[in-house]
Amino acid sequence: MSSFGQVIHINLFGESHGESIGLVINNLPAGLTLDKKRIEHALFKRRPKSNLSTARQEKDPYKIVSGYFNDKTTGTPLTILIPNEDTRSRDYTPEILRPSHADFTAKVKYNDSNDYRGGGHFSGRLTTPIVILGAICESILEEKGIIVSSHIASIKDISDTSFADIDITEDILKKLNLSDFPVVNSTVKAKYEAQILDAKHNLDSVGGTIETMIHGIPAGYGYPFFDSVESILAHLLFSVPAVKGVEFGKGFAITKLFGSEANDSFILENGQIKTSSNNSGGIQGGISNGMPITFKVAIKPTASIAKPQKTVNIETMEETTLELKGRHDPAIVHRVIHVINAITNYAVLELILRTEGTKWIG
Amino acid sequence: MSSFGQVIHINLFGESHGESIGLVINNLPAGLTLDKKRIEHALFKRRPKSNLSTARQEKDPYKIVSGYFNDKTTGTPLTILIPNEDTRSRDYTPEILRPSHADFTAKVKYNDSNDYRGGGHFSGRLTTPIVILGAICESILEEKGIIVSSHIASIKDISDTSFADIDITEDILKKLNLSDFPVVNSTVKAKYEAQILDAKHNLDSVGGTIETMIHGIPAGYGYPFFDSVESILAHLLFSVPAVKGVEFGKGFAITKLFGSEANDSFILENGQIKTSSNNSGGIQGGISNGMPITFKVAIKPTASIAKPQKTVNIETMEETTLELKGRHDPAIVHRVIHVINAITNYAVLELILRTEGTKWIG
Amino acid sequence: MSSFGQVIHINLFGESHGESIGLVINNLPAGLTLDKKRIEHALFKRRPKSNLSTARQEKDPYKIVSGYFNDKTTGTPLTILIPNEDTRSRDYTPEILRPSHADFTAKVKYNDSNDYRGGGHFSGRLTTPIVILGAICESILEEKGIIVSSHIASIKDISDTSFADIDITEDILKKLNLSDFPVVNSTVKAKYEAQILDAKHNLDSVGGTIETMIHGIPAGYGYPFFDSVESILAHLLFSVPAVKGVEFGKGFAITKLFGSEANDSFILENGQIKTSSNNSGGIQGGISNGMPITFKVAIKPTASIAKPQKTVNIETMEETTLELKGRHDPAIVHRVIHVINAITNYAVLELILRTEGTKWIG
Amino acid sequence: MSSFGQVIHINLFGESHGESIGLVINNLPAGLTLDKKRIEHALFKRRPKSNLSTARQEKDPYKIVSGYFNDKTTGTPLTILIPNEDTRSRDYTPEILRPSHADFTAKVKYNDSNDYRGGGHFSGRLTTPIVILGAICESILEEKGIIVSSHIASIKDISDTSFADIDITEDILKKLNLSDFPVVNSTVKAKYEAQILDAKHNLDSVGGTIETMIHGIPAGYGYPFFDSVESILAHLLFSVPAVKGVEFGKGFAITKLFGSEANDSFILENGQIKTSSNNSGGIQGGISNGMPITFKVAIKPTASIAKPQKTVNIETMEETTLELKGRHDPAIVHRVIHVINAITNYAVLELILRTEGTKWIG
């Protein structure tokens, strides 16, 4: 379903070329003033721009159509609506299945009734309201000293410095959040761009990985088993189109270590219990341990490429060759990163609030 | 929380050294006869045995205390109860935090009131009823031609042949399901065992990866966004203790490919639409595409090792050294694999049933 | 929260004088053509009209902004949006609490940040999209031979003939559904209207009861305990503003009978098991028994009356007298009845689909 | 389903003559010491006793098999298990459908696989663990100054003094909670008993109504629409077997009043905003207003009566006469009242905790 959340329940709707897309956010507390500049900046960061992206100018003139009054949340459902402006009729050939798109699965699932235009409900455009949600949650978490921050950890074979390899300060994280192309090692940016432009030149595309840190989250959030921190985060991360892998802490690489290398020894630091390493990524038994929560996400290369591709015409049931017209993003990692950040902010808030409810009893 | 599921709702309970552990399974249809042999075999496979595991003899004499009458499910909640036999009092020192265990996080989360004995609710023992659940779901899926099967893809640096590299037949998958130490390439088993015993000899432990295939699942299951196939599977997989990463299809490796290499071309095979490669792991836009669903899971090295480890005594707030007594599993990958298989069977059934409900409308 | 439903999940949003109100309907099957005439008729029936209602002309020019393409549902969230036209600024005095309105509770709950204009999210206007939802569900149920139909069972002291006292045919039920002021005994309408106009004349208001029948629902739907037919129906019925009581079958009157009078004897009718009476209202053990499901709902008199009323000014914390300006509905039973019908149609569909999911296993 | 709750999630299981019945309570905070005496007293009150009930001696030797350690809740699922002792084989004739029991509906719903012995999962015995849950929640609410209390408002035609007609003090409510046969006007007890014994003498049964008050609940709990206080309470109340009606405040009788009579005027009392009457039952717009929440519940006459009844043999499909053997409760109102109280305590706690979660943001 297109809804999620027990405390802050969200409901996503819309298709790429329908009337509008939007998001209903339920149960936000009353009295919050939205930080419009933060929202604008978040939208700006996700927006396609420069020669690394498609030419389609997506402006996102969002409206808040409910739940906001006198510059404050009312406590009742907040609804974000983003009208689709670029919905002109075109020559669509939905019968020519685009490889590694949802064309085929949507057609089967929805018995040929799916809105295929621009990917419909499956379009990356649907992540725009999630970016707004993320900005709202970010404001709330920031007040509590919690920062979510990500960088482009790799594009194809080129890698940035990992969070694990340097001393991460709040300043570094905040700086990354200011950038629309966040990297730790500033010299890697040019290499990434060259890699992307090279793919573009070849009518091809590239993917990459995103590394995220949740800084300042106290120990004790999450649950054993089905609502573990990993479970909730992975559930939401895998809902972002193009994500094919999620790993926490050392992730898959931890399987190459001995237990004595992998274990995070407890130490005392200024009278606080910490761990000397953070291979667990800040989580043990599904619960935050007070260290930064870290994870990595794999983003597949953009499926839309201009190169001719073999595929099937599902109407005639014949094999054919597809040549996608128009301009295509040679990479989306630098855009998806802002969605990953957004949905992580939401996930953290939801995780915390699930636990906080019962503290009333205390 | 320790509950999950909208259609087949489950509720896990118990602590390693409490009275009993168990699972309530809600909404199973009435009239199913449980395959007791299959359940026994599943329990056998997960059970520690031989020199690769601890000496603790876990028998699992489970009882069904509700929802089963005249050898058939009644349709009301089916409750599995497994009494804990080995609950004798011991010298526990919960104040000495075991590295990379949930000792610290449980203590913080539950304000010192957690049942620390044997890991309490966090114990791997809690996965026993999940294995029974898995066997029940497996029977149901088998009737529909759906097979879930896994193999130990790697232990530390040694790897088995990947599902991606050979022709997978139903026979291979069924054979893997018969084995308590499933590998595709039979010669790798001895190497795995040597690796594990070597770790054991050094009072250390190793981890590994598990590769799973869901064979026979038709196209059209799952949802875009928050209930994508990946989201539901990852949610449940990450609830299994020791899992640190989940990747679908080509996973993280897909980020090293160009789009033209990563995309799965549609082809016709005996009049059916298939894809020539399966880098997407059988999922597009969060929905099954009719190809086998494949994923890999990272299992960290067993956290309990006999080697002395640095840690903190949380009572005295002093750093100290921990030497775990008793015998410890030098690896659990070959046991966790059966839990991964079990929870995947459950996840697939839940995914299918969520979609099937609305078909009544027709 | 303003959301409900596991299979057909809905999310209501909006305030009476905000930008728009609306409803997201998740998980409707793809390929349904909406019956626009039926929707228009349902909206017409709920709309205030004639001298029995306020002068405010509520047109409801709804838009479907997502989930509908080429005159068919797409299977992704269907979003209904109703812009608020009459949102001109007025002299609101939210500090003067209107008795038996949500002014006070909303103010407390939402820390003074609620949108008080026209009742905000609490406004009866929010039931408009529910009426559209009801019309959509009605089409689906009609195809399956299930009809939901209601009549105004009483207004103040005057009563209509009860469903229990006559032979109910499909024809009678369908005829009731055509009427915007549905009564079984046509002569009672004039008396009801006189009663309402009399209240109006006295600057006062009246309430009444609504009796509903769900005809054609097969035996076997619903669950014991927490998802009983009564639980799900009552949950939704009590979400309709102004509802103060819900009773099934004979309801409160059953407490005046002996068991031997109250019990519904099983009989055979054309080889089918029926009951000779229907005091249980078609439900036993929380599950439909194949007889019509019947219930009654109590609607309180409209809280807004022109008569002066004692109340409190919450700003000055002084007692005061409130004289509501404008024209006020002297009764809303004849409008709420269409909301009750609508939400019952939705409840029935949700109840059925919850059960149908597991039939796949069969 | 047999589960409920978002914050304190519960899962009921078991059949009357199966191995055990029980309840899993998820998400109770850690560190609570259960008040065993209160639980014992609650069980005592619900237990059949004296000549008003059947001879079957139900002892309820419950066990807590998980979630409790060192006399404190651990924060992980608390599981209550009650073994069924009286499970001897008897001559059951499930094919003779007992009128107004769930025999028929269970048989249809569960395709003949239901456990029919003693009503199976539909048995009133299943309410025993709910009584324990209620006692646990009662302790928590009492600490916060919230008291839930009920009295037998009527049995057949005889009525007790209503809460609405006298000044209710905490003392009165506490005294009612001490009684296993709670009435406001002590002289009515003898009349109730005579009424019940008279029915018993005639091999018949009687029903009645229960009136409940939630005292001390602050304003601001509950939600507009789908999670209104009425919706959550009614959902749970209607899950109790034998409940056929629920009304809040003045309930159905409010439909006989003019708006000017029905409205609750706001007044100031010691600087606090109160209402002069409480026809709304402490709820406006679905949200508590700080006045006591009051409601009434209709309990049908016990369906099991010794008098011969007409029914159908579903095997032979012939009409027949049923003469129930053994002794039968001529009334259960005085037992169900303790279940109503219990489930209300749970409902109130759940309602409060849903709201409290978001206060963290504040």
TrEMBL record, chains A, B, C, D:
<dbReference type="GO" id="GO:0005829">
    <property type="term" value="C:cytosol"/>
</dbReference>
<keyword id="KW-0057">Aromatic amino acid biosynthesis</keyword>
<dbReference type="GO" id="GO:0008652">
    <property type="term" value="P:amino acid biosynthetic process"/>
</dbReference>
<keyword id="KW-0456">Lyase</keyword>
<dbReference type="InterPro" id="IPR020541">
    <property type="entry name" value="Chorismate_synthase_CS"/>
</dbReference>
<comment type="pathway">
    <text>Metabolic intermediate biosynthesis; chorismate biosynthesis; chorismate from D-erythrose 4-phosphate and phosphoenolpyruvate: step 7/7.</text>
</comment>
<feature type="binding site">
    <location>
        <begin position="300"/>
        <end position="304"/>
    </location>
    <ligand>
        <name>FMN</name>
    </ligand>
</feature>
<dbReference type="GO" id="GO:0009423">
    <property type="term" value="P:chorismate biosynthetic process"/>
</dbReference>
<feature type="binding site">
    <location>
        <position position="327"/>
    </location>
    <ligand>
        <name>FMN</name>
    </ligand>
</feature>
<keyword id="KW-0521">NADP</keyword>
<keyword id="KW-0274">FAD</keyword>
<keyword id="KW-0285">Flavoprotein</keyword>
<feature type="binding site">
    <location>
        <position position="285"/>
    </location>
    <ligand>
        <name>FMN</name>
    </ligand>
</feature>
<comment type="similarity">
    <text>Belongs to the chorismate synthase family.</text>
</comment>
<protein>
    <recommendedName>
        <fullName>Chorismate synthase</fullName>
        <ecNumber>4.2.3.5</ecNumber>
    </recommendedName>
</protein>
<dbReference type="GO" id="GO:0004107">
    <property type="term" value="F:chorismate synthase activity"/>
</dbReference>
<keyword id="KW-0028">Amino-acid biosynthesis</keyword>
<comment type="function">
    <text>This reaction introduces a second double bond into the aromatic ring system.</text>
</comment>
<dbReference type="GO" id="GO:0010181">
    <property type="term" value="F:FMN binding"/>
</dbReference>
<dbReference type="InterPro" id="IPR000453">
    <property type="entry name" value="Chorismate_synth"/>
</dbReference>
<comment type="subunit">
    <text>Homotetramer.</text>
</comment>
<dbReference type="GO" id="GO:0009073">
    <property type="term" value="P:aromatic amino acid family biosynthetic process"/>
</dbReference>
<feature type="binding site">
    <location>
        <begin position="121"/>
        <end position="123"/>
    </location>
    <ligand>
        <name>FMN</name>
    </ligand>
</feature>
<dbReference type="InterPro" id="IPR035904">
    <property type="entry name" value="Chorismate_synth_AroC_sf"/>
</dbReference>
<feature type="binding site">
    <location>
        <position position="46"/>
    </location>
    <ligand>
        <name>NADP(+)</name>
    </ligand>
</feature>
<keyword id="KW-0288">FMN</keyword>
<dbReference type="Pfam" id="PF01264">
    <property type="entry name" value="Chorismate_synt"/>
</dbReference>
